[in-house]
Amino acid sequence: MRCMLLFKRGVFGFCLQNEFEMAFTNRPAEAAKKMTADTRPWALRPARPSDLLTVNRVIESAIHRWELPARVKRLCVPLYRYSEHDHDYLDLVVAEAESTGIVGVAAWEQADTDDAPAGHRALLLQGIYVAPDQHQKGVGRRLFGAAEMAASLRGFDGVLVKAHPGASDFFRALGLQRLPVQDDRRDYPHRFWKSVKDH
Fold first, then answer.
1. How many Å apart are CA 81 and CA 59, to the nearest integer?
2. Residue among 17, 15, 24, 3 at smallest CA distance from 149
3. Alpha helices in 64-177 (DSSP H)
4. Which pLDDT does position 21 carry in this prediction?
5. Could you tell me which residues come within 8 angstroms of residue 68 by beta carbon, excluding any fewer than 6 positions away?
6. Residue 188 DSSP class
């Protein structure tokens, strides 16, 4: 049985077996059941290094839908691309459709203490990116659910998001609350938080 361990951060490291069967290093049966129970025409799995080109294409297509000037979008794209070096720091998950391939991407890591609400440990969701033709199909919602589960399994108090302004309504719809800006020099203005303590 072939097994490849990717993104070895905390107890949430993924193990990919036979390229289809997923498990987590903590509570594997429960995690695998949650990740594979959905019957949608796509499934979540950990990204592989060979996915990076496609992952970055999905991110680029998502950024081009943002309400920004074209020049700003062009400048943004290189900053949002992932590289093999990022594997050492991030958990990266893709939504993959059997017929069309990767249609969504999410990435997360442990948040800095100064970014999280006082007294809380947080998983920082770096971003959720969905191919434009897959919007409104539940891809982003399920990727966020995977981030919530990751936070819970790793013992974090909740999920922190530094959202693009245009994504604020999406995260509010998922039950996240906007955090107040307490220091204009430090706090990103579009920070959202959701506790996972009741999961």
1. 7
2. 24
3. 70-80, 139-153, 168-173
4. 36
5. 76
6. -
* Distance set, CA 82 to CA 17, 86, 120, 186, 192 (Å): 24, 6, 28, 25, 23
**pLDDT for 6 beyond 70:** no
Separation of alpha carbons 35 and 15, rounded Å: 13
Nearest-angstrom CA–CA distance, 175 and 24: 25
**Structure tokens belonging to residue 122:** 């947080």
Residue with tokens 């770096």: 126
- Beta-ladder partners of 177: 193
Q: For the segment 39-63, what is each residue's pLDDT rounded down to a tens digit?
A: 567 899 999 999 999 999 999 988 8
- Separation of alpha carbons 114 and 173, rounded Å: 25
- Token pair listed for 162: 């530094």
Q: State which amino acid sits at residue 138.
A: G
* Token pair listed for 40: 């949608």
DSSP β-ladder status, 158-162 and 122-130: parallel
DSSP annotation of 66: S
In 3D space, the residue among 94, 90, 74 whose CA is nearest the CA of residue 82 turns out to be 90
pLDDT in tens, 144-159: 999 999 999 999 999 9
